[in-house]
Design goal:
CATH architecture of the largest domain: 3-Layer(aba) Sandwich
Bound molecules: S-adenosylmethionine, zinc ion
Radius of gyration: 23 Å
CATH class of the largest domain: Alpha Beta
Number of strands: 17
Structural class: alpha/beta
Distance between the termini: 73 Å
CATH topology of the largest domain: Rossmann fold
Shape: globular
Largest sheet: 7 strands, mixed
Strand content: 15-25%
Helix content: 25-40%
Number of helices: 14
């Protein structure tokens, strides 16, 4: 470790001289900033990448770096090794700069770096956003070798994160947070099972529950990679939305955290009759029965623990609810006031699932149950009310439409739905 090396001494650092991009650009905005992006017929034709749909993904990064900073009482040093034109970093500094000290952004695409540099200067954040043009893995190892470590790393690739995961650990501070996105949902959701087995060393399952299975396979992959280099990770927030899965992990070096993490890898067993999902830790799948039949729908290895940390989600929800309250008051007073984050309302729903359902593993789908049992669908709120009356918990899930989490057994859920439909006839 050489502490005299600064970030600007690392090869690949792009100096802050203003460069006009060599290609046509257009003005866009997200959150509270405006920036230039490469012009193109579609996001995939443009010579550098910016996807407006990922605003929720970026908002979550701003929210969770803020929670991290408030929890530990210091400003975050962040790195985005696959940054595209760097919108996430620009927004972290320009919008939530009281929580994020500086961000290293990197991309190996020439045009992308030109546009990113141009925007950094225009936004006047060049003292806190440091751009690199390097191959991501070699940059991370180089930074780490020179003692430059980060509290937050956001890994946001095209497709699977698996080519990069093993390279992220050395560049992270001993206590840190990592966010990993996967967009190769056809592999993780089991449309192409062999791709999932090849990339994630896990057997997926393409059924109603595939979006949670996908997230759990991704988590197990990150846990195993971390454990190989003596790090323990645990998910604090999980989303499976739009065309991707994204998970935020806390990273810890203690032996206890490593043992705890690997002990929560196992398999899921889905009953084809009652749709109940049984999770069990272990290194090989077992024979299991439900509804008097042997379960054949088995997926894994995957994460069998909680997908959310209740406290982290509560902290996020407090920030969101305060923002919504301020907007309400501003409206009453006839003042203009925009949301803190463009995806505030969506994030509220995701965080509520984390607060109320962190220990409810697996979800049911109303439409799937109704179709299989050839019964009509009652209103989901009626089902919630009925199960609550009977002492069961009920939480709507955002993983797919009509999904819900409950501690009621599958057979009881089906019976309750059937009774609700009969009562209404
Ligand atoms: C999905 S985009 C990133 C989007 C960005 N995180 C955002 O929020 O807008 C992935 C980026 O990674 C870059 N990339 C892919 N492989 C890379 C590698 N091995 N090293 C450096 N950059 C890479 C691509 O050029 C692309 O811009
Ligand atoms: Zn069953």
């Amino acid at each position: 470790m050489n502490n005299s090396v600064t970030i600007h001494d690392i090869p690949g650092y792009i100096s802050n001289d203003i460069m006009d991009p060599e290609i046509p650009t257009i003005l866009k905005s997200e959150g509270k900033i405006e920036f230039m992006v490469a012009d193109g017929e579609s996001i995939y034709d443009a010579p550098s990448f910016f996807n407006p749909i990922m605003v929720l993904n970026r908002d979550l990064a701003l929210l969770f770096t803020r929670i991290y900073s408030e929890t530990f009482g210091y400003k975050v040093r962040a790195i985005e090794p696959l940054a595209g034109i760097g919108i996430r970093a620009f927004r972290m500094i320009a919008e939530t700069g009281e929580y994020v000290d500086e961000v290293v952004i990197n991309d190996y695409n020439d045009i992308t770096i030109q546009i990113s540099n141009f925007n950094t200067n225009k936004l006047q954040i060049q003292d806190r956003v440091h751009s690199f043009k390097r191959e991501a893995r070699s940059l991370m190892l180089d930074l780490a070798e020179n003692g430059l470590k980060f509290h937050y790393l956001d890994l946001d690739p095209f497709g699977p994160p698996t080519p990069f995961i093993d390279s992220i650990w050395p560049v992270l501070a001993l206590r840190s947070m990592v966010a990993v996105t996967a967009t190769d949902m056809t592999a993780l959701c089991g449309v192409y099972p062999s791709a999932c087995i090849r990339k994630y060393a896990s057997v997926p399952l393409n059924n109603h529950h595939t979006h949670e299975t996908a997230a759990r396979i991704l988590i197990a992959t990150v846990v195993r990679s971390a454990a190989r280099i003596e790090r323990g990770v645990r998910p604090v927030f999980t989303a499976s939305v739009d065309h991707y899965t994204k998970v935020f992990f806390m990273v810890n070096k203690s032996a206890g955290a490593i043992t705890e993490a690997v002990s929560q890898i196992g398999f899921s067993y889905t009953c084809k009759s009652c749709f109940q999902i049984h999770y069990e830790a272990g290194i090989i799948p077992r024979t299991k029965t439900c509804c008097a039949e042997e379960i054949t729908d088995i997926a894994g290895p995957l994460w069998v623990g909680d997908l959310f940390d209740k406290q982290w989600c509560e902290n996020g929800l407090t920030i969101i609810n305060n923002d919504l309250e301020e907007i309400k008051n501003a409206t009453i007073e006839g003042k203009e006031r925009s949301y803190l984050y463009p995806s505030t309302k969506r994030m509220k729903k995701l965080l509520e699932e984390g607060v109320n359902g962190s220990d409810l593993h697996g979800y049911y789908c109303m439409d799937v149950i109704s179709r299989q049992n050839r019964i009509a669908q009652p209103r989901i709120d009626n089902l919630a009310e009925k199960l609550n009356e009977q002492g069961y918990r009920f939480v709507k899930s955002n993983f797919v439409k009509q999904a819900f989490r409950t501690d009621a057994p599958g057979t009881h859920v089906i019976d309750t739905i059937r009774k609700l439909v009969l009562d209404n006839e």
